[in-house]
Amino acid sequence: MNLPKFLTRAIACWMLTSSLTAAMAQDKPSVKEWVGTPPTSVAYIGNSFFYFNNGIVSHLSPMVAEGLKGHPYRSSMITISGSGFDWHDVDSYFRPNAIGKYSFAADNSVVFNPSTNKLFEASVMMDCSQCPIHPTMKPVFTEFAKKHSDTVRKHGSKPVFFMSWAYQDKPEMTAQLAQAYTEAGNANQALVIPAGLAFARSIAVQPAVNLYAPDKRHPSVEGTYLAAATTYATLFKQSPVGLKFSAGLKPDVALHLQQVAWDTVQTYLKP
Protein backbone atom coordinates (compact mmCIF):
# COMPACT_ATOMS: atom_id res chain seq x y z
CA MET A 1 0.00 0.00 0.00
CA ASN A 2 1.37 3.38 -1.01
CA LEU A 3 0.81 6.02 1.66
CA PRO A 4 0.27 9.69 0.75
CA LYS A 5 3.48 11.71 0.93
CA PHE A 6 2.22 13.90 3.76
CA LEU A 7 1.39 10.79 5.83
CA THR A 8 4.80 9.25 5.11
CA ARG A 9 6.50 12.45 6.30
CA ALA A 10 4.29 12.55 9.40
CA ILE A 11 5.17 8.96 10.32
CA ALA A 12 8.88 9.62 9.79
CA CYS A 13 8.68 12.75 11.94
CA TRP A 14 6.82 10.80 14.66
CA MET A 15 9.51 8.09 14.65
CA LEU A 16 12.29 10.67 14.96
CA THR A 17 10.42 12.51 17.69
CA SER A 18 9.97 9.24 19.56
CA SER A 19 13.70 8.60 19.31
CA LEU A 20 14.41 12.09 20.63
CA THR A 21 11.94 11.62 23.49
CA ALA A 22 13.63 8.35 24.42
CA ALA A 23 17.01 10.07 24.47
CA MET A 24 15.67 12.89 26.63
CA ALA A 25 14.35 10.27 29.07
CA GLN A 26 17.83 8.97 29.85
CA ASP A 27 19.77 9.89 32.99
CA LYS A 28 19.83 13.62 33.66
CA PRO A 29 23.11 15.54 33.93
CA SER A 30 24.27 16.45 37.43
CA VAL A 31 26.33 19.40 36.14
CA LYS A 32 23.76 21.90 34.89
CA GLU A 33 25.91 24.78 33.67
CA TRP A 34 29.36 26.28 33.33
CA VAL A 35 30.09 27.81 36.72
CA GLY A 36 31.63 31.27 36.84
CA THR A 37 32.73 33.64 34.10
CA PRO A 38 32.46 32.17 30.59
CA PRO A 39 35.76 30.62 29.49
CA THR A 40 38.27 32.75 27.63
CA SER A 41 40.34 29.83 26.33
CA VAL A 42 39.06 26.46 25.12
CA ALA A 43 40.74 23.36 23.69
CA TYR A 44 38.65 21.14 21.41
CA ILE A 45 40.15 17.66 21.64
CA GLY A 46 38.70 15.09 19.29
CA ASN A 47 38.54 13.98 15.69
CA SER A 48 37.19 14.84 12.25
CA PHE A 49 33.73 15.59 13.64
CA PHE A 50 35.38 18.74 15.01
CA TYR A 51 37.52 19.69 12.00
CA PHE A 52 35.04 19.24 9.12
CA ASN A 53 33.87 22.46 7.40
CA ASN A 54 36.91 24.45 8.47
CA GLY A 55 36.37 23.37 12.05
CA ILE A 56 33.88 24.02 14.79
CA VAL A 57 36.04 26.92 15.99
CA SER A 58 35.55 28.85 12.74
CA HIS A 59 31.81 28.83 13.43
CA LEU A 60 31.97 29.30 17.19
CA SER A 61 34.46 32.19 17.37
CA PRO A 62 32.23 34.59 15.35
CA MET A 63 29.29 33.66 17.58
CA VAL A 64 31.29 34.53 20.69
CA ALA A 65 32.59 37.76 19.14
CA GLU A 66 29.05 38.85 18.24
CA GLY A 67 27.14 37.59 21.25
CA LEU A 68 29.66 38.43 23.98
CA LYS A 69 31.14 41.65 22.63
CA GLY A 70 34.50 42.39 24.18
CA HIS A 71 34.84 38.97 25.76
CA PRO A 72 38.39 37.67 25.15
CA TYR A 73 38.30 34.26 23.57
CA ARG A 74 41.02 31.95 22.29
CA SER A 75 40.55 28.40 21.06
CA SER A 76 42.57 25.54 19.61
CA MET A 77 41.48 22.34 17.90
CA ILE A 78 43.63 19.31 18.72
CA THR A 79 42.27 16.61 16.47
CA ILE A 80 43.29 13.26 15.01
CA SER A 81 41.29 11.75 12.17
CA GLY A 82 39.21 8.81 13.36
CA SER A 83 40.51 9.11 16.89
CA GLY A 84 39.06 8.01 20.17
CA PHE A 85 39.84 9.15 23.70
CA ASP A 86 42.73 6.73 24.02
CA TRP A 87 44.55 8.13 20.97
CA HIS A 88 45.14 11.46 22.67
CA ASP A 89 48.04 12.23 25.01
CA VAL A 90 46.15 15.02 26.74
CA ASP A 91 48.87 15.68 29.30
CA SER A 92 51.25 16.67 26.49
CA TYR A 93 48.78 19.28 25.22
CA PHE A 94 49.43 21.35 28.33
CA ARG A 95 53.22 21.38 28.13
CA PRO A 96 54.74 24.87 28.42
CA ASN A 97 55.57 26.97 25.35
CA ALA A 98 53.77 24.68 22.93
CA ILE A 99 50.06 24.65 22.02
CA GLY A 100 48.54 28.07 22.55
CA LYS A 101 51.88 29.87 22.71
CA TYR A 102 50.71 32.35 20.07
CA SER A 103 47.56 33.30 18.20
CA PHE A 104 46.69 35.17 15.01
CA ALA A 105 44.73 38.39 15.41
CA ALA A 106 42.04 39.63 13.03
CA ASP A 107 44.64 41.63 11.07
CA ASN A 108 46.80 38.48 10.74
CA SER A 109 49.38 39.79 13.19
CA VAL A 110 50.92 37.27 15.58
CA VAL A 111 49.98 37.68 19.24
CA PHE A 112 52.14 35.93 21.82
CA ASN A 113 50.03 34.77 24.73
CA PRO A 114 51.49 35.36 28.21
CA SER A 115 52.81 32.13 29.66
CA THR A 116 51.38 33.12 33.03
CA ASN A 117 47.83 32.72 31.71
CA LYS A 118 45.98 29.49 32.24
CA LEU A 119 46.50 27.61 28.97
CA PHE A 120 42.92 26.37 28.55
CA GLU A 121 40.12 27.13 30.95
CA ALA A 122 37.93 24.48 29.33
CA SER A 123 38.84 21.25 27.58
CA VAL A 124 36.03 20.03 25.33
CA MET A 125 36.61 16.35 24.59
CA MET A 126 34.92 13.92 22.21
CA ASP A 127 35.47 10.20 21.72
CA CYS A 128 35.13 8.41 18.38
CA SER A 129 31.61 8.25 16.99
CA GLN A 130 30.94 4.67 18.15
CA CYS A 131 33.39 4.27 21.03
CA PRO A 132 31.04 5.21 23.90
CA ILE A 133 28.50 2.56 22.85
CA HIS A 134 30.62 -0.13 21.16
CA PRO A 135 30.75 -3.30 23.30
CA THR A 136 34.54 -3.58 22.97
CA MET A 137 35.43 0.10 23.21
CA LYS A 138 32.95 1.32 25.82
CA PRO A 139 35.20 0.32 28.76
CA VAL A 140 37.99 2.34 27.15
CA PHE A 141 35.65 5.32 26.88
CA THR A 142 34.84 5.07 30.58
CA GLU A 143 38.50 4.64 31.55
CA PHE A 144 39.79 7.59 29.52
CA ALA A 145 36.87 9.87 30.36
CA LYS A 146 38.13 9.71 33.93
CA LYS A 147 41.82 9.78 33.00
CA HIS A 148 41.49 12.84 30.78
CA SER A 149 39.20 14.62 33.26
CA ASP A 150 41.81 14.13 35.98
CA THR A 151 44.57 15.29 33.62
CA VAL A 152 42.95 18.55 32.55
CA ARG A 153 42.00 19.36 36.14
CA LYS A 154 45.61 18.84 37.13
CA HIS A 155 46.49 21.61 34.69
CA GLY A 156 43.80 23.98 35.98
CA SER A 157 41.29 23.30 33.20
CA LYS A 158 37.70 22.06 33.43
CA PRO A 159 36.69 18.92 31.52
CA VAL A 160 33.68 19.20 29.21
CA PHE A 161 32.33 16.28 27.19
CA PHE A 162 30.94 16.78 23.68
CA MET A 163 28.04 14.40 23.04
CA SER A 164 28.34 13.42 19.38
CA TRP A 165 25.43 12.59 17.08
CA ALA A 166 23.91 9.45 15.60
CA TYR A 167 24.75 8.35 12.08
CA GLN A 168 22.13 9.52 9.62
CA ASP A 169 20.90 5.97 8.97
CA LYS A 170 21.17 4.83 12.61
CA PRO A 171 18.97 7.18 14.67
CA GLU A 172 18.92 4.68 17.54
CA MET A 173 22.45 5.83 18.36
CA THR A 174 21.04 9.11 19.70
CA ALA A 175 19.67 7.64 22.92
CA GLN A 176 22.68 5.37 23.37
CA LEU A 177 25.20 8.19 23.00
CA ALA A 178 23.13 10.52 25.18
CA GLN A 179 23.12 7.95 27.97
CA ALA A 180 26.84 7.18 27.66
CA TYR A 181 27.97 10.81 27.70
CA THR A 182 25.57 11.75 30.49
CA GLU A 183 26.86 8.87 32.61
CA ALA A 184 30.46 9.94 31.94
CA GLY A 185 29.65 13.55 32.74
CA ASN A 186 28.00 12.60 36.02
CA ALA A 187 30.81 10.22 36.98
CA ASN A 188 33.43 12.90 36.39
CA GLN A 189 31.45 15.99 37.40
CA ALA A 190 31.85 17.36 33.88
CA LEU A 191 29.52 19.52 31.83
CA VAL A 192 28.12 17.81 28.70
CA ILE A 193 27.37 19.60 25.42
CA PRO A 194 24.27 17.85 23.98
CA ALA A 195 25.12 18.16 20.29
CA GLY A 196 23.72 14.71 19.49
CA LEU A 197 20.36 15.60 20.99
CA ALA A 198 20.36 18.84 18.99
CA PHE A 199 20.85 16.85 15.77
CA ALA A 200 17.89 14.61 16.66
CA ARG A 201 15.69 17.60 17.53
CA SER A 202 16.54 19.40 14.29
CA ILE A 203 15.69 16.33 12.23
CA ALA A 204 12.41 15.89 14.07
CA VAL A 205 11.41 19.53 13.64
CA GLN A 206 12.80 20.24 10.17
CA PRO A 207 13.93 17.06 8.38
CA ALA A 208 14.57 18.95 5.15
CA VAL A 209 17.62 20.62 6.73
CA ASN A 210 20.41 18.15 5.99
CA LEU A 211 22.96 17.94 8.81
CA TYR A 212 25.16 15.30 7.23
CA ALA A 213 27.91 14.91 4.66
CA PRO A 214 27.34 12.23 1.99
CA ASP A 215 28.98 9.56 4.19
CA LYS A 216 26.05 9.92 6.65
CA ARG A 217 28.45 10.36 9.57
CA HIS A 218 30.33 13.62 9.28
CA PRO A 219 28.56 16.98 9.53
CA SER A 220 27.47 19.17 6.67
CA VAL A 221 27.97 22.91 7.11
CA GLU A 222 24.53 22.95 8.72
CA GLY A 223 25.63 20.21 11.11
CA THR A 224 28.81 22.01 12.13
CA TYR A 225 26.86 25.24 12.60
CA LEU A 226 24.38 23.44 14.85
CA ALA A 227 27.20 21.84 16.84
CA ALA A 228 28.81 25.26 17.31
CA ALA A 229 25.52 26.89 18.33
CA THR A 230 24.89 24.12 20.87
CA THR A 231 28.41 24.56 22.25
CA TYR A 232 27.87 28.33 22.43
CA ALA A 233 24.62 27.92 24.35
CA THR A 234 26.18 25.40 26.75
CA LEU A 235 29.56 26.97 27.49
CA PHE A 236 28.60 30.63 27.35
CA LYS A 237 25.05 30.34 28.76
CA GLN A 238 23.76 32.60 26.02
CA SER A 239 20.99 32.04 23.52
CA PRO A 240 22.31 31.95 19.94
CA VAL A 241 18.89 32.89 18.62
CA GLY A 242 19.15 36.06 16.58
CA LEU A 243 22.89 35.98 15.95
CA LYS A 244 23.66 37.47 12.55
CA PHE A 245 26.58 35.14 11.84
CA SER A 246 25.16 32.42 9.62
CA ALA A 247 28.23 30.70 8.07
CA GLY A 248 26.73 31.45 4.67
CA LEU A 249 23.53 29.53 5.39
CA LYS A 250 20.12 30.92 4.46
CA PRO A 251 18.80 33.14 7.27
CA ASP A 252 15.80 30.90 7.96
CA VAL A 253 18.01 27.81 8.19
CA ALA A 254 20.48 29.53 10.53
CA LEU A 255 17.60 30.74 12.71
CA HIS A 256 16.13 27.24 12.85
CA LEU A 257 19.48 25.78 13.95
CA GLN A 258 19.98 28.53 16.54
CA GLN A 259 16.56 27.83 18.03
CA VAL A 260 17.14 24.08 18.05
CA ALA A 261 20.47 24.54 19.83
CA TRP A 262 18.95 26.75 22.53
CA ASP A 263 15.88 24.55 23.03
CA THR A 264 18.04 21.43 23.30
CA VAL A 265 20.39 22.92 25.87
CA GLN A 266 17.50 24.24 27.96
CA THR A 267 15.72 20.87 27.85
CA TYR A 268 18.82 18.80 28.59
CA LEU A 269 20.46 20.93 31.26
CA LYS A 270 17.38 22.53 32.83
CA PRO A 271 14.42 20.19 32.33
Produce a short descriptive summary.
With 271 residues, the protein is an alpha/beta fold. It has eight helices and seven strands.
Task: Give your account of this protein's structure.
The protein is α/β, with parallel strands linked by helices and 271 residues long. It has a single domain (38-269), classed as SGNH hydrolase (Rossmann fold, 3-Layer(aba) Sandwich). It has eight helices and seven strands. The chain has helices at 5-24, 48-51, 56-67, 138-154, 173-187, 195-205, 221-236, 251-269, and strands at residues 41-46, 74-79, 102-104, 110-112, 122-125, 158-162, 191-193. A five-stranded parallel β-sheet has the order 2-1-5-6-7, sandwiched between helices. Strand 6 (158-162), helix 5 and strand 7 (191-193) form a beta-alpha-beta unit. Helix 3 (56-67) crosses helix 7 and helix 6 (195-205) packs across helix 7 (221-236). It is globular, with a radius of gyration of 18 Å. Residues 5-12 have low confidence and may be disordered.
